[in-house]
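Our consortium's second objective concerns turning raw sequence data into structural hypotheses that experimental partners can test. To show how far this objective has progressed, the report includes one record in full. It was chosen at random from the queue rather than selected for favorable results. The single chain below, 78 residues long, was entered without modification.
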Amino acid sequence: MSEMYERIIEKTEDLDISGKELGAMLGLKKSPLTDWKNKKSSPTLDQIIKMCEIFAVSADYLIFGKSDEMEENEKELL
C-alpha cells in the first residue's frame, strides 16, 4: 500500500490537488490520505477507479506502478 500511496501523493501534487479536495472528489467528507498513509484504511475499488479517472492513469499504474508501456519481455511474448 505504501507504494500506491506514494503514487497517489505524486499525482495529487502534479495536479495541485489537496487531500481534502481528493476526498471531496471521491465523495468523502475528509481527506483519506492520512488514514491510507497510517494504514488505518485502504482505498476501495470504487475509489481506485475514480482516482484513475481523476489522475488519467491506469489501475495497473496506480496499484502496481506499472506504466502503460509494455516492457521488453512482454513485447517478446507478443
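The partners drew two points from this record. The chain has a mean pLDDT of 87. The helical segments are 2-14, 19-25, 33-37, 45-55, 59-64, 72-77. Both points have been shared with the crystallography group to help prioritize constructs.
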